[in-house]
Please model this.
Amino acid sequence: LLLNRSMGSDVVEQFRELQKRNEHISKQMKGLLNNFSDRLVNLEARILPLHHETASLQVHQRNLESAIKQLTGVMEFYRTPHEMSKIILKPTIDSVPEYIQAMKSIQNAQQYFKENSSALPELKKLDECFAKGNDNLCRYFTSELGRFSEDVMPSAELKVLVDAFINKEFEDPIQDGDLIPEDKVSDLHEVAFWLCRVNLESYDFSVQYAVNRSNALVKVLTVFVEKFRSSSSESSQMSTGSSAQRNVPHIPRRKKRSKATRNITVNPSLHIDSALVSKRTTFLSTVDLDDFDTSLYINLIAAFHIMSGLERKLLEKIIPRNKEKECFKRLCQDAMVRIMCDSEDVCRLCVQRSRSMRSDFSPVPYLLPIAHFLRELLPTGSPHVLTDDWVSSQYRAVFRLLLNSIQSCLNDFVEGVKGDSGKSVPADATVHEISSKVISTLPYLVYYREVLTLASYTQQDKSKSDGPENVLAKLNEQAVYSALDKFVGRLSGNLALALAQKSGLYDQPAKHALFRLNNSNYILKSIQSSNIVDFKLPRVEQTITDMSRHVSQARLEFMQSWRKLYNLLTKPRDNPIIAPADLASYQEKARAGLQPKMKEMDREAVKSIFADFNMEFQRVHSAHRTYAIPDAEILASVMNEIQSSVLEEYRKVHSDYAILPFTKFPEKYVKYTPVQLEACINECYALH
Model:
C-alpha cells in the first residue's frame, strides 16, 4: 500500500512539471507571434505604395508597347507597296507560299487604308499590285495545269492498270497516281484556295481546272484507244482480261456492213438524251461489231473509270470542297459524253443488224460482255467515281441502253427464228443453219443469265422511270432461273415451228424424216451436253422430252424406205413363189454343177425377185447417197440396222437364187454381190 502511494505521488509530480513546461512554451510562442504581426504591419505600410507605383508603371509599359506595335504595323502597311511589289511584279512565281503570303500582306494593307486613310496614294498602289498579283496567280494556275495536261499517263502503264482492274487483281483500282507531282499539287492547292478566297469575277479557277483536266482525260483515253488498235494489228489477239469472253465459245460474225447499212435511223427511245451532246465526238471512230470491238469498248470503260478516279483524288487535293462536285462533273462530262455516244452508236448498229437479219444472234454476244462488265462495275466500282451523282447516273444510262438493246435484239432473234422465210434447206438433209444458230446461243444464255434477266425486266418495267439497277435488289436465283427458262422455252418453241416449216420443203418422205432426225438429235444432244440441264428448268426438260420423241419418230419414218427393201427380200420366204421341193431340187443340182431345167414360171419368179430389188435399191441408193447423218451414234445405229436387215436378207436371197440358171444373162438381174451391196450401202450418209 505504501508502495502504491509512493508511485502515485511521483506520477502527479511528473504531470505538474509537464504543465509548467507547456505554459512556458505557450508564453514564448505568443510573444513571437505578436512580434511577427507588428513587423508585418510595418512592412505592409512601407511596401504597398511601392506596389501601386509598380503596377502603374506596368500599365504605362503595356500602353507604350501597344502603341509601338501599332505604329510598327502602320509603318509595315506603308512599306508594303514598296516591299511586296518586289515579289508581285516578278515575271515568274518562284515560291508559291511566299507569293501567297505577299498577297495576304497586300490585302491586309488594303483593308487598313480603306478603313483609315482611303485617300492616300499608297492605297492605289496596293490595289494595282493586288490586281497584278491575282492576274499572275491566274496565269500561273492556267499554265501549270496546261503543262501537266500535255504530259498524260503512258498508254502501256494505263493498260497494266486496266488489265489488273478487269481481272479483279485488286479491290480498289484507284491508286495514288502521279498525274501531277506532289510539290506542284501543293502549290496548285494554295493558289486554288487563294483564288476561291478572293472570288474573282473574271476568272473561275474551278472551270479552268475542269477544262484542262478534261482535255487531259480525253487525250489519254484517245491515245489509249489508238494504241489498243495499233497493238491489235501487231498481235492477232489482245486479251480483254474478261473471264466472260474466255469462257464462252466464239460465234462467227458476219462480214462488215456497207456505209449504207450503217446510216440507219432506229427507235428514238433507244437514244441517250441528245441535250448533253452538243458536239457528237466519239472515241471509237468505227464499230464493226466483232470481238475486238467488244474488247476495246470494255477496256475503254475500264480506262475511263480508273482515270476519272485518279482525277477525283487529284481534284480533292487541289480544289476547295465546296467546288468539288461541280468541278468533277465538268471534268468528266466530255469523256463521258463521248462514251455515251459510242454506246449509242454500238446499240444502234446492233439493233439495226438484228432487225435487218432477224435470225442473226451475233449482235447479242457483242453487247452481253459489255453489259456484264458494267453490271459488275456499278455495285463494286471505285467510290471515288460512283459516289458522284452525275457520273453514276451516266453509267446507269449506258447500262439501261445496253439492256434495252439486248432485249430488242433477243426479241428480233426469237421472232426471226419463227418467221424465217428462207426457202433454202440443206441438200443432204443435215442440220439446218437455224438449229446451229439457236444452239450456239446456249452458252451465252447460261453465262449471262443475270444480264438477260435484267434485260427482260426492262421490257416489263418500261413505264417506270427508275433504272434497272434498282432491280438488282430483287434479283434472286429463282428469278434468274425463271427468266432463263421462259426465254429458252420461247426460243425452243419457235425453233420447232421453224423446223417443221423447213422440213415441209422436201418432196421426198425419207429426206423429210432425215431432216427432222438430224435436227432433233442435234438439238437434243446439244442441250444435254450443255450445263443448262444442271438448273433443272421445266421448259428445258420438256424440250428434251419432246426432242427425244421426235428423234424416235423421225428415225422410224426414215427407215421406211429400207424396210421396203427388207420386205421385198423376205417376201419369197414368207410367201414362196416356187414350190419348196422344186427349189430344193434346183439348188441341189446347181451346187452339184448340173444345169437343172427350171419351169418357165419359176424362172420368171426369180427374175422378178432380183429385178424388183434392183429397181428399188437403185432408187434408194441414188437418193440416200446424197443424204448425210453427221452424228456418229445415229449413223452407226442406222447402218447396223440396214446391215442386220437388208444386207443379211440379201445374202440369203443371193445364196438361194443367184446360183440358179433362171436366165442366160445373169448379170442383167444379179447386179450386186453381197460385198458389192455392202459397199453401196456404205456410200450413203457420208458428209459432203
